[in-house]
Specification:
Largest interface: A-B, 113 and 112 residues
Number of helices of chain A: 15
CATH class of the largest domain in chain A: Alpha Beta
Distance between the termini of chain A: 60 Å
Oligomer: homodimer
Organism (chains A, B): Denitratimonas tolerans
CATH architecture of the largest domain in chain A: 3-Layer(aba) Sandwich
Cofactor (chains A, B): pyridoxal 5'-phosphate
Number of domains of chain A: 2
Family (chains A, B): Belongs to the class-III pyridoxal-phosphate-dependent aminotransferase family.
Shape of chain A: globular
Strand order of the largest sheet of chain A: 4-12-11-10-7-5-6
InterPro entries (chains A, B): Aminotrans_3, Aminotrans_3_PPA_site, MIP_CS, PyrdxlP-dep_Trfase, PyrdxlP-dep_Trfase_major, PyrdxlP-dep_Trfase_small
CATH topology of the largest domain in chain A: Aspartate Aminotransferase, domain 2
Largest sheet of chain A: 7 strands, mixed
Pfam families (chains A, B): Aminotran_3 (PF00202)
Radius of gyration of chain A: 22 Å
Structural class of chain A: alpha/beta
Number of strands of chain A: 18
CATH superfamily of the largest domain in chain A: Type I PLP-dependent aspartate aminotransferase-like (Major domain)
């Protein structure tokens, strides 16, 4: 009875939009011209209030599939047993730290648990400042590292975007190492050449009286437009930052946990080991959770007498869910799946590209893929209008996609990593149909 | 089978401590000289690995009782149905905003959902800066507002504590309005007199070239030592801040959601309405969740073109859990319980105080209570050693408590608000026994 009294009313989309406008964060956007009211998720599918299924190729959070029964069970069982903080001892907390660090190269052995990627990147900044005694921070153009005041300052995507307040004194920005559209294109040595650009950022900080505390770099550039770092980039960049006394941070909030398929962590392909790794989104398959992993040396520098206590971070429910996500990735061989389906998808996109001149570049690793729309293939002129039209047309065919990049012309493909070959075939067929129906360039 | 392969091993306390030291945040403290390994929670009880029950009087997060079945069911059901972000429409998100704002005075009608109190206070700072165009912030001495870089700067508890880097240029600190130990004691007009001290902080900011963006104030001082704001404090303080163009923020991360019993929100007793209210800890009974509630005017100032998107914030699972917490508070009449049991506890503590000179002050509202240990009642000399001994002795009698305050001599009482009269009787009897067994002063 009491349950009925407080049942959540079902409201129409119009009513929900009206109430959102009145009572919720007014800056929050809604996906699509005609918003979706999604009520159920399962695997790679989302279902609207009418029971219509949508193939979800956007969600890099519900990483092992929406409502994965193993993850749901782990969360539900632990919620019913105990949910408290880390000032008591608990088996799941220690086990999670052991299981997570077992996937990482040896020096990355100390774990801090948070509630989000933003909290992880914020804590990482405190670690870097404590270790180096410096304040300067170098970031990659168009990067996004979080929504806190400190992380907006480290996110060119935000501070140089609409409503942004520009670059702070302690921040320097290096160009995106984009071998398709950037200053260095199509060159075998693009990686080291972009890496050497760190020197300019270090000089710029020095001129403003700052030494570098940290270089923040996503291991694959997400908001930057699904950019794959060219070979040798991080090796060169890290060497220069370290020579200047700074720490190197790999932000894998968007791309970690086996999405790239050939490795658990995307930084591994670059042949480097960061000093700090930050994690979020996929870590709990949607449960609010994040983590920082660092070396004993950096962790020790943080022991100044001030405690870092995070009320919810590392609670037994989060740890049980985090463990279940690791279990599922391993037991269902999802990294193999990401390699196989990712290769099939990328090959299929390249085959479509060959027949549709509107796609200028197709790039990807595992199930992190981008397709860049251009109006002129030779000039590589961005075509955001076409990208937008394709996203809406695919939505009409019940496939969910999004766009990003400085010109908003890159189709972002980052589905739950249970995405199958059959799902990929459905997507490719529909995309081919959508592109074939569009007027040429 | 796969479940067995990845079952979490049960480890001894010694082994867990060893592994924590090797693989987890080295700044994280463990409660008690002999740490507890807690494996199960129910209502006001926590159970260790041997099945021993402990009466939990510390946990202000598992607000409606550990593992409340209604809250667990809401979370488990929604986890199995859908967990995605707020770019799709969802009934529970809108319903939560409506239910939450229905408990608040009219102008506080716009909700932003986050994953923690820290994220809420961080977002609030962005709102205040956007609305005022100013950077200055006034905080109360010994306050704690969060663990992010920006919030450590606003937390004298941290920046003036061990390992702290001192006060930032844009921050001014006002004295704790503590009518027992502060500069103004035992005066009927202590509230307005402490309130007038905001003028000094505003002047101090002005002298450093800052206008005030916001005054952050907990509605009851938690880390400050369970201090109840004297009557008239916020009215006077808010008036001065507003006259200087700043916004007034009530931080109810620790004390909100009916803990004070006579009101849902502790600020109400002061006869004011803040411009921004921040929420956390109890909001999800342990689920990682936080919120900012503000006025349409402040929210509108935040519409600058930059989106505030929080990956996990406002997801359907968090909203379902948040709704269940509101339901339980109402249906189980927990605010009435907080009043009745709180009054009984406070009266019982005062009766004990009359027989034990080591307790200098007993103060509280509802189930937010402090008892201050002193070595000399007339001089009010803090006695942290006695507070520590009492906490350990009570733990030996299976009652969990903690201490806080600038001198760490205040016994903090903030149990789940399902705490019953029988629980209170058990606590009072045990405390009386512990104090009677201690050597006098």
């Amino acid at each position: 009875m009491t349950d009925t009294r407080h049942a959540v009313p079902e409201r129409s989309r119009e009513e929900l939009l009206r109430l959102r406008r009145a009572h919720l964060n007014p800056t929050l956007s809604v996906a699509y011209r005609e918003p979706l009211k999604i009520v159920r998720g399962e695997g790679v599918w989302l279902y609207d209030a009418q029971g219509q299924g949508y193939l979800d190729m956007v969600n890099n959070v519900c990483h092992v599939g929406h409502c994965h029964p193993r993850v749901v069970r782990a969360g539900a069982e632990q919620m019913a047993r105990l949910n408290t903080n880390t000032r008591y001892l608990h088996d799941a907390l220690v086990e999670y730290a052991l299981r997570l660090t077992a996937t990482l190269p040896a020096p990355l052995s100390v774990v801090f648990l948070t509630n989000s990627g933003t909290e992880a990147n914020d804590l990482a900044l405190r670690l870097a400042r404590a270790h180096t005694g410096a304040r300067g921070t170098i970031v990659v153009d168009h990067a996004y590292h979080g929504h806190s005041p400190s992380m907006v300052e480290l996110s060119p995507y935000k501070f140089n975007g609409r409503g942004g307040e520009g670059q702070a004194d302690h921040v320097a920005v290096v160009p995106m190492p984009d071998a398709y559209r950037g200053a260095v294109r199509d060159a075998a040595d693009a990686g080291p050449r972009y890496g050497r650009m760190l020197a300019g950022a270090i000089d710029e900080l020095r001129a403003r009286g700052h030494r570098p505390a940290a270089f923040y770099c996503e291991s694959l550039l997400g908001c930057g437009g699904q950019v794959i770092l060219p070979d040798g980039y991080l090796r060169q960049a890290f060497a220069q930052v370290r020579a200047a006394g700074g720490l190197c941070l790999s932000d894998e909030v968007q791309v970690g946990f086996g999405r790239v398929g050939d490795a658990m962590w995307a930084f591994e392909q670059q042949g480097v080991v960061p000093d700090i790794l930050t994690l979020g989104k996929p870590i709990g398959n949607g449960h609010p959770m994040g983590a920082v992993v660092t070396t004993p040396e950096v962790a020790t520098s943080f022991v100044t007498g001030m405690e870092y206590f995070n009320t919810f971070g590392g609670n037994p429910v989060s740890c049980a869910i985090g463990l279940a996500v690791l279990d599922v990735i391993e037991e269902e061989n999802l990294m193999d799946n990401a390699v196989r389906v990712g290769e099939f998808l990328t090959a299929g996109l390249r085959e479509i590209q060959a027949r549709h001149p509107g796609i200028g570049d197709v790039r990807g690793r595992g199930l992190f893929i981008g397709a860049e729309f251009v109006s002129d293939a030779a000039a590589r002129s961005p075509d955001p209008a076409r990208a937008r039209v394709v996203v809406e047309a695919m939505k009409a065919r019940h496939v969910l996609l999004s766009t990003d990049g400085p010109d908003d012309n890159v189709l972002k493909i980052k589905p739950p990593i249970v995405f199958s070959r059959a799902n990929a075939e459905e997507f490719l067929e529909k995309l081919d149909g959508v592109l074939g129906a569009l007027p040429v360039g």
